[in-house]
Amino acid sequence: MNAADFVALLPLITIAATAIVVMIAIAIRRNHKASIVISLLGVSAALADLPLSASAAPRQITSLLVLDSYSRLYMAILLGAAGFVFLFAYDYLKRRQERPEEFYLLVLLATTGAMVLVVSRNFASFFLGLELLSVALYSLIAYVRTESASIEAGIKYLILAASSSSILLFGLALIYAGSGSMELDDAHLWAHEHVSSHDGPDARTHGHRFQAGGRSISTLDAGCLRRRTPAGNGVHCHRIEGRNVCISFALVPRA
After folding, report:
1. Domain locations in the chain?
2. Strand runs (DSSP E) across the chain, as ranges?
3. What pTM was estimated for this model as a whole?
4. Which of 108, 194, 223, 247 is the most buried (most CB within 10 A)?
């Protein structure tokens, strides 16, 4: 990673650092107003970092994350929603007898997990972001410990989320076994090829098919996937205007 990568990741780094600062502030001295002030300042700083992040985007950061206009849009929505949650929850938490400071920490962690989700391009980062979001939601659902309904809802969500995560992991393992990759682009192309193979050789692509010099040529506008080809066939992959383009050649006899 270089400086441009860190600039592109500034909103995510800022909101994660804010969660750490809130946790340290709670450990030093509990103060409801200080917790919400730090949280709002962190959310505002992350929102202010979005235009700066745009100067380095679109950018792929390792094989796990990608920063583009869509990810910045959804990060802005998530950060705005978190700010409104802080403002609306302050008076509610102030009227209750429980210690409210951890609420802001949990919302910041949930926001961080959701932001990792929207910038993921790999199933590994996708799953990590999903788990960070889910673990924070466990505690938020059961946060009102004086009400039995809140505890019951938290336990039910914990059981349901644990079951769904195990099923998700099993599905990711099957995708990896079939495609040989954890990247979303490769999994999409593998699924396309796998489904199209059952529809006949002419239904394997939505691209263009034409004749040239005794060859039937199909263009596939998709991420290139390493695959075996029959004798006489071949696959050439090129990068055109920032997109992977695969051209498959199948030799056919002359009329």
Report:
1. 3-147, 203-251
2. 59-61, 65-67, 209-212, 215-220, 233-240, 243-251
3. 0.71
4. 108
